[in-house]
UniProtKB/TrEMBL annotation, chain A:
Residues 1-22 form the signal peptide. GO terms for cellular component: mitochondrial inner membrane; mitochondrial large ribosomal subunit. It is found in: Mitochondrion. Residues 197-222 are annotated as: Disordered. PROSITE patterns: RIBOSOMAL_L3. It comes from the Eukaryota. Transmembrane segments: none annotated. The gene is MRPL3. Its main location: mitochondrion. NCBIfam families: L3_bact (TIGR03625). This is Large ribosomal subunit protein uL3m.
Automatic annotation (TrEMBL), chain B:
Keywords: Mitochondrion, Ribonucleoprotein, Ribosomal protein, Transit peptide. InterPro entries: Ribosomal_bL19, Ribosomal_bL19_sf, Translation_prot_SH3-like_sf. This is Large ribosomal subunit protein bL19m. It is found in: Mitochondrion. The gene is MRPL19. GO terms for molecular function: structural constituent of ribosome. Coiled coil: none annotated. The keyword Lipoprotein does not apply. Belongs to the bacterial ribosomal protein bL19 family.
């Protein structure tokens, strides 16, 4: 008679690693309560025991010159100054690695025939307004839904099991990285701001022409404007990469990377960080944590890792 | 604040001695009377190091001390993750444990010593009046102005630079304005300070005095039109350099609607209290 809320099904799924999903399903006739609520706990963060077994499908290899390891996705926090031991001042961007997980491994044959790929997700986001396919991908990996999902090209010896979390200690101070992000959108901009043209003089007889592109090319011989001519248009909001940025400091507790210089994107945007491909910086990237840094491994890292040239604020005043 | 911990040794008997030695001000001195414990006969008494002297000044209670939070700790009102400000604050506190950065305001006279690898004595000393404090976080700066050999000199120092060796406040006071850029157009006597000036002591319980001085200016033109309301300068004697008609003409650039702009209001009192407690707790650790 009375419209009672029937608690129909409580599913408790226990996965191999000890993490569990609790799904409560309520059916109500009159009141409108959300039908599905998911509560999730993670018991262990890495499948460390899997990596140690003899014939496991995810063996750990040693780093060599040709190997390419996975990158991270981080959130741009802001910028701050940093000083070297000799007193020179540089600026760094702080990037925080929030909930970065490996979601999927695509082997060489399926991806492009040459390199394998790892799909990485970063920054947990709510499970609403998402397609079933994307939710299925996260469910298979055992991770909560992520805001940004990207692919990294990876050599076969650097493959990681899906579901492994990635931390900021994956990068070490003194190494160089490339950072990719979507630049701040500037909207429709003229040719002086967009392409750096010099425009025309402000006075001395110029009639209504101060910021225009001027000539569009040679005259009667081609009798056309070449494709790709720099003209006004939408500027920004495209992916751009900053190459060869030095890592000054890594905070292992809050998972923050301090990276030299500026990085494309606005504050709180998601950026892709990977080891640099510049040939002259490769010598600084030797012997990194390979394939990644495992939190429940043997390595005990201090809270802050500093580059050898960087001035640390706890140092006493000389003289 | 508690007196240093009592050792079980031979210190118990000294309690009465300590009480009798109390100063009339209420300052408590610890003594070295009970330092040597009675060792066994024949052997020299075992040396017990003295407890640290603790001075409790009952005249000034903790509550009456001036509370000051340096303005670079207050985060700007932005859409930045507070984690970033927390990390910066940790670094700033770490630096403050090594180098003592005193309380000062715009208008105080400071003496700054910096490390200079190219100088003969490896240091660089400058005395001047603080005309500006700007920047938030680790990049906070302050500018000192002085007139050396008839030439006005302004030096902008970074508070947290590793080259800073020593900062001392020679005269702690406030002025009527937030920045004193108009001193560039004022008579040189207002910006000259002796390099060997003796520090003027101010008690830690007293309020910081506000110097109500109004400076006299050099003849116009000035570097900026200081009479205009956007600068809101209180510390210039306009009646000696401008006619009332000129003052009225300057009021044409007044923007009386700005005082009603709610988006410009930034009430930092609650944020300041929290950060002040956090900073004091960390520094006292």
């Amino acid at each position: 008679n009375s419209s009672d809320i029937l608690l129909t099904v409580i599913l408790l799924s226990l996965l191999l690693d000890g993490s569990c999903y609790c799904i409560f399903m309520c059916e109500s006739r009159k009141s409108s309560i959300p039908a599905v609520q998911c509560v999730r706990t993670i018991k262990t963060s890495t499948w460390w025991d899997e990596h140690l077994t003899e014939d496991n499908p995810w063996p750990r290899h040693e780093w060599d010159e040709k190997s390419r390891r996975v990158g991270l996705v981080a959130v741009k926090l802001g910028m701050m100054p940093v000083w070297t031991k000799s007193g020179e001042r540089h600026v760094v961007t702080m990037l925080q690695v929030q909930d970065c997980h490996v979601i999927k491994h695509i082997p060489k044959e399926e991806y492009n025939g040459r390199t394998a790929a790892l799909i990485i997700g970063a920054k947990n986001s709510p499970p609403f307004y998402r397609t079933e396919e994307s939710l299925e991908m996260f469910r298979n990996a055992g991770v909560p839904p992520k805001q940004k999902v990207t692919t990294f090209h990876v050599t076969d010896n650097a493959v990681i099991k899906p579901g492994t979390p990635l931390y900021a200690a994956h990068f070490r101070p003194g190494q160089y990285v490339d950072v990719t992000a979507k630049t701040i959108g500037k909207g429709f901009q003229g040719v002086m701001k967009r392409w750096g043209f010099s425009g025309q003089p402000a006075s001395h007889g110029q009639t209504k022409t101060h910021r225009r592109p001027g000539s569009l090319g040679p005259g009667g011989d081609p009798a056309k404007v070449f494709k790709g001519k720099k003209m006004p248009g939408k500027m920004g909001n495209v992916f751009d990469t900053a190459f060869g940025l030095k890592v000054w400091r890594v905070n292992t507790k809050a998972n923050i990377l301090y990276i030299n210089g500026s990085v494309p994107g606005h504050r709180n945007c998601l950026v892709k960080v990977r080891d640099t491909i510049l040939p002259h910086r490769l010598e600084k990237n030797r012997n990194p944590p390979f394939p990644t840094f495992f939190a429940d491994g043997d390595e005990e890292l201090p809270e802050d890792l500093y580059d050898e040239n960087m001035f640390q604020f706890g140092e006493p005043i000389p003289g | 604040m508690a007196v240093s911990s009592r050792r079980a040794g031979g210190v118990v008997g000294s309690v009465r001695l300590l009480r009798s030695l109390q100063h009339q001000d209420g300052r408590l001195f610890s003594t070295s009377v009970a330092r040597h414990t009675a060792g066994s006969e024949g052997q020299p008494p075992k040396f017990v190091p003295p407890s640290k002297p603790v001075i409790i000044d009952k005249a000034k209670s903790q509550a009456s001390l001036r509370q000051f939070l340096s303005p670079e700790f207050i985060p700007p009102r932005q859409r930045t993750n507070p984690v970033k400000f927390a990390m910066e604050r940790k670094d700033m506190i770490q630096r403050r444990k090594i180098l003592n950065i005193p309380e000062f305001y715009v208008g105080s006279v400071l003496e700054v010593t910096m490390l200079d690898p190219h100088a003969a004595s490896k240091t660089n000393r400058f005395v001047g009046i603080c005309i500006q404090r700007s920047g938030k976080g680790l990049g906070a700066t302050f500018t000192l102005r002085n007139i050396v050999d008839g030439q006005g000199v302004e030096i902008c120092y970074e508070l947290y630079s590793p080259r800073m060796k020593h900062i001392e406040v020679l005269k702690l006071e406030k002025r009527l304005d937030d920045n004193l850029f108009y001193l560039r157009d004022a008579l040189p006597e207002y910006s000259t300070f002796d390099f060997d000036m003796k520090p003027v002591h101010l008690s830690p319980t007293q309020d910081v005095p506000v110097n109500q001085i109004k400076v006299r200016m050099k003849p116009r033109p000035w570097s900026k039109r200081w009479e205009r309301p956007k600068f809101n300068v209180q510390g210039i004697r306009f009646d000696q350099c401008l006619t009332p008609e000129q003052m009225e003409h300057a009021q044409k650039w007044a923007e009386p609607w700005r005082q009603y702009d709610m988006l410009k209001e930034y009430d930092t009192s609650s944020v300041e209290e929290k950060i002040l407690q956090e900073v004091q707790a960390e520094l006292n650790k």
